[in-house]
Design brief:
The complex is a heterodimer of chains A (481) and B (448). Chain A has 481 residues and is of the alpha/beta class. Chain A contains twelve helices and 24 strands. Chain A has a ten-stranded mixed beta sheet with strand order 4-3-7-9-12-14-17-20-22-24. In chain A, strands 13-15-18-21-19-16 form a six-stranded parallel β-barrel. A two-stranded antiparallel sheet of chain A has the order 1-2. The radius of gyration of chain A is 22 Å and the shape is globular. In chain A, 57% of the residues are buried. By secondary structure, chain B is α/β, with parallel strands linked by helices. Chain B folds into two domains: 276 residues, no CATH class; 63 residues, no CATH class. Helix content of chain B is 21%, strand content 36%. The chains are: A alpha/beta (481), B alpha/beta (448). At the A-B interface, strand 22, strand 23 and strand 24 of A face strand 19 and strand 20 of B. Strand 23 of chain A pairs antiparallel with strand 19 of chain B, so a sheet runs across the interface.
């Protein structure tokens, strides 16, 4: 396959497409973290006392914790005092419509292919675009308001729906959950809040584009989605970040609450800056995502396509508390260059007849390292619970690594758990078959890889499936071992 | 029960008391190994659940007793007393240990051992012909593997020593029996060394059994060297009393074109853990491990297997099955590690568990750690119950529920047992398994 190696390396070295920096004055706090910083963030957001207290408790707890070491990732130590914990673009406060938004910002989104105005008409997607830490534009508010759906930045929700936020914030991911969740609880700057009232099917797919812009600014988003009884929502999260030399820390928390008969579909395409070939720069993406199926027959589905970030460390999980509730996890994770990903899920079965499905596809190329780490726990009360897990890894290049670390704990004699994992490279016979039908090697590989990931892609909403496929081909096309 | 206040101190005292009595005190290389073992043990102590390899395995059952140093067992046994314990009726040679000490009177006499085979007690060999051992002993076991291996090394004393000369092919199995006498309250640390030189072929049976029902603690280490083109069939049965604590660690080094096949069965013990550390270090080596573990009332059965593919073109297979009854717990941890450049690796692992009672628990963790791309690796794990359709079928033929369950459990185990080439082994273990199943009330599960 040496004839192909130049193309391969060209593709593997391909520059990060979304790497540009928007030059907008930002209002940042100086680097460092202490109680004063937490108070300052809270004050900037004019938060109520209970939230400040919560942040401070989280901060105090975090101060006593040590960074976890168990993930299969390696990075230089993070200096938490060298990070600026708040950065907001200087814009007129509270833009009412797109016209009021800084045109330069809009231009950035155009470059990223998020035509807000166009999407409004064509796709019917409401986009809550987060530029660094503050929501700058929110569309479709009226239409959503008609349905009773609350879709706003979390700071706005704290002001306008304090009872709802207070009831649910931290109820799935406590500030004591883990090191990064504690940090997030202390300093989260913004994020998204969604509430779907009883019996409402959200009239459109909700979407937030995250984007990290200021150098040295860790982004600490907090997303809270509450689906009340018998409601439905599909939420899309996608992200890109400009090229930077310094590692940027991202420690987000996502909490989902599904009450009786509710259904939440959460999809992510993550394409943050992965660092250069030598592994310099790139985002550290340490995220805590968890959903709780609180009510009977509720349903939470996570779908993720992870192609970016220098280090990805996340385990979107489901707590299946309600009887007959369902949890799903579909994931494609691609690592190349020196990217490292340690990702997977936890399915905690507590209710009767709960079911979960895990499909994880890992692709490692170049010197990338990809680990699936998952837990399936059947508690003694999980009568007739079922789990099926499928983890496949595809290896491209002899310097990459793929790991599978599933944990299976069963304490109920009516539960059934099945786990399968495979690791292999693209088969020579598969390639030969495609090439004998006249496909170029590159197209053949692209086709095989897309086939490998199909099971996950078909879970993505239409809008995302195309983007995911494009990302995948950018990353891997033609990379034959 | 004498609760032990500081277990590390207790074992240090145990080592101090035993050291003057250990063989080969004049051998610098041996003393160095023992010292390294003790050093590692004292520096690291016993593992806790915070360590990944021990997260499902607590040591309370082992540490709650103040075990005494291993001493000459006072027991009056005749060869006939042992006949019921032999697994291979047609064994070519036999070796008996009581409380870790070789019993020549109960073993095959030296002159009756087949030609080209060196078989005896390690203690005697260390006193009489240590040069033969220095090349091998400690070559496979790594002291850092666990506190137990370190302790075993610090107390390196007696065990089976078997060497098979190049190209010798033994038609009949060699059977080694380890008997523990709980009344002595001894911590028994057998160290076994099995060496197959180039092209040698053999079947070796390790059988651990109890002579009484009193609690005993065995901490065995077996080192295995399989030379170029050699083949070892390694059959291991742990069938100690329900109050025994049993730890065993097997370390295997395989040379090129060699084949190692193990059949592992854990039936007894209130606390048992078996570790396999296999290293495929030359090309085209093949390693297969089939295993069965059974756990019952308030018992723990734990199996850890780590197969390391260090070079290209080797293959490995692990196939483990577990049956968990009563309030038993079973833990399985199987790792396939493929090192950089170990291309053309073919490695597979499967682990199936039958969870048969409301109070039982299974924790399983199959793992793949892969640093090469041209490999085929997979694992599969299941935890489930007996198939109601199969039960119905049997019952519709007039077979009682209890018997139907036992039949299905035995069938489940058969796949593992039938893989063993030792004649009569499958029947013998099947019978013991049946006794375990009959002793345990098979709680009604998933029936309607």
């Amino acid at each position: 396959m040496s004839s192909n190696s130049s193309e391969v390396s060209a593709l593997i070295r391909r520059e990060y497409e979304q790497g540009f920096v928007t030059d907008i004055p930002t209002e940042s706090l100086p680097p460092g973290l202490d109680e004063q910083v937490v108070r300052a963030i809270s004050a900037k957001k004019s938060e109520p006392d209970w939230l400040l207290e919560w942040r401070l408790e989280a901060f105090r707890y975090w101060s006593q914790q040590r960074e976890p070491q168990w993930a299969a990732v390696h990075h230089a130590p993070i200096d938490y005092q060298a990070i600026s914990y708040y950065s907001a673009p200087k814009s007129r406060p509270g833009p009412k419509s797109l016209d009021e938004v800084d045109p330069k910002l809009l231009e950035t989104y155009e470059k990223l292919g998020i035509p807000l105005a166009e999407q409004k008409m064509l796709a019917g997607v409401a986009v809550d675009a987060v530029f660094d830490s503050v929501s700058v534009a929110t569309t479709f508010k009226e239409k959503l308001a008609e349905a009773g759906v609350i879709f706003s930045s979390i700071s706005e929700a704290v002001r306008e729906h304090p009872e709802l936020v207070r009831q649910h914030l931290g109820s799935v991911v406590s500030y004591r959950d883990n090191f990064f969740a504690s940090l997030n609880a202390a300093v989260f700057s913004d994020g998204t809040f969604v509430y779907i009232p009883k019996g409402v099917r959200c009239p459109m797919e909700l979407s937030t584009y995250f984007r990290i812009n200021s150098a040295n600014t860790g982004q600490f988003e907090r997303t809270l989605i509450v689906a009340d009884e018998a409601s439905y929502v599909s939420y899309l999260e996608g992200c890109t970040a400009p090229m930077r030399d310094e590692n940027q820390l991202h420690a987000a928390v996502v909490e989902l609450v599904a009450l009786e008969d509710a259904r939440i579909k959460y999809s992510t395409v993550q394409n943050w800056y992965p660092g250069d070939e030598q592994g310099r720069g790139g985002i550290y993406n340490f995220v805590t995502k968890r959903g709780e199926c609180r009510g009977a027959r509720s349903h939470i589905s996570w779908t993720q396509v992870e192609t970016g970030s220098a280090i990805t460390w996340k385990y979107p999980s489901c707590i299946l508390r309600g009887d007959d509730s369902v949890g799903e996890f579909y994931s494609v994770a691609v690592t190349r260059g020196r990217q490292q990903a340690d990702t997977g899920t936890k399915m905690i079965h507590m209710g009767r007849n709960t079911r979960s499905t895990i499909v994880s596809k890992g692709i490692s190329a170049g010197q990338g390292s990809n680990a699936y780490r998952g837990l399936v726990r059947m508690t003694p009360k999980a009568e007739n619970a079922r789990n099926h897990t499928q983890c496949d890894s595809l290896l491209i290049g002899d310097r990459c690594a793929a790991h599978t670390f599933p944990y299976i704990e069963v304490r109920n004699p009516t539960a059934k758990v099945e786990h399968e994992a495979t690791t292999s490279k693209i088969g020579d016979d598969q390639l030969f078959y495609c090439r004998s039908r006249g496909l170029s090697e590159e197209n053949a590989v692209s086709m095989i890889v897309n086939g490998f990931c199909k099971e996950v892609f078909k879970e993505l909403p239409m809008e995302f499936a195309a983007e995911a496929q494009k990302l995948l081909s950018v990353s891997l096309e033609g990379a034959v071992g | 029960m004498n609760a032990v206040m500081d277990p590390v101190e207790h074992y240090r005292a145990l080592v101090d008391a035993a050291t003057p009595l250990l063989p080969g005190a004049h051998l610098a290389w041996l003393v160095e190994q023992r010292e390294r073992g003790l050093e590692h043990f004292l520096a690291n102590g016993f593992p806790t659940r915070k360590q990944e390899a021990w997260r499902y395995t607590g040591l309370e059952r082992v540490l709650e007793e103040a075990w005494l140093p291993q001493a000459e067992a006072v027991v009056n046994l005749a060869a006939d007393d042992l006949s019921r314990l032999w697994l291979a009726p047609k064994a070519g040679a036999r070796l008996v240990f009581v409380n870790g000490r070789w019993m020549p009177a109960l073993s095959t006499p030296v002159d009756a051992v087949p030609a080209g085979v060196q078989l005896g007690g390690l203690r005697e060999a260390l006193e009489e012909e240590p040069d033969q051992l220095s090349a091998w002993l400690g070559g496979a076991a790594h002291i850092e593997a666990s506190a137990f291996t370190a302790l075993n090394s610090a107390l390196l004393d007696d065990g089976a020593w078997l060497q098979i000369a190049a190209d010798r092919r033994l038609p009949a199995p060699i059977e080694i029996l380890y008997l523990s006498l709980g009344q002595d309250r001894a911590a028994i640390h057998p160290r076994n060394l099995l060496v197959l030189e180039e092209g040698a072929q053999a079947t070796v049976i390790e059988h651990y059994a109890s002579l009484d029902e009193a609690p005993s603690f065995t901490n065995a280490v077996t080192e295995v060297m399989v030379g170029d083109g050699a083949r070892l069939e390694h059959t291991r049965l742990q069938d100690e009393s329900p109050s025994a604590r049993h730890m065993s660690s097997v370390f295997v080094r395989q040379a090129g074109d060699s084949a190692y096949h193990a059949t592992h069965v854990s039936l007894g013990g209130v606390w048992s853990r078996s570790e396999y550390h296999n290293r495929l270090q030359c090309e085209r080596a093949n390693c297969e491990i089939d295993g069965l573990y059974v756990s019952g009332e308030r018992r723990l059965a734990d199996v850890h297997v780590a197969i390391e593919h260090a070079v290209p073109a080797c293959s490995s297979r692990q196939r483990f099955k577990g049956i968990v009854l009563g309030s038993g717990r079973a833990v399985f941890d199987g790792l396939i590690r493929v090192q950089p450049d170990a291309q053309k690796t073919d490695a597979h692992l499967s682990n199936d568990n039958l969870l048969l009672s409301r109070d039982a628990e299974v924790d399983t963790k199959p793992q793949l750690e892969i640093y090469a791309d041209d490999v085929k690796c997979s694992h599969g794990t299941t935890v489930g119950q007996l198939d109601p359709a199969q039960l119905f079928y049997l019952r519709s033929r007039g077979i009682g529920l209890g018997e139907a369950r036992r039949m299905l459990c035995l069938g489940f185990a058969t796949e593992v047992l039938d893989g063993c080439s030792v004649e009569g082994f499958a029947d013998r273990v099947g019978e013991r398994l049946r006794q375990h199943l009959e002793a345990s009330p098979l709680i009604r599960v998933n029936e309607e």
